[in-house]
Write a structure and sequence with these properties.
Elements lengths: L2 H22 L5 H17 L3 H8 L10
Helix pairs in contact: 1-2, 1-3
Length: 67
Amino acid sequence: MTLDRAVMAFAGCVVLLGLLLAVTVHPWWLALSAFAGFNLIQASFTGFCPAAIVFKKLGVRPGTAFK
């Protein structure tokens, strides 16, 4: 798995987790999904993604988007 796919999979899991928690626990959990979406948008413009830094330190091989 490349760094790009790991970041996208992690973001997708965060969004789905936020939606699940909003349905089952409290609607304020939608803020987690909003944060993930905002982070994806800012990463597309700046190239800075905290999740990519963590995955890179864990040894995930680089892809094309995050180097």
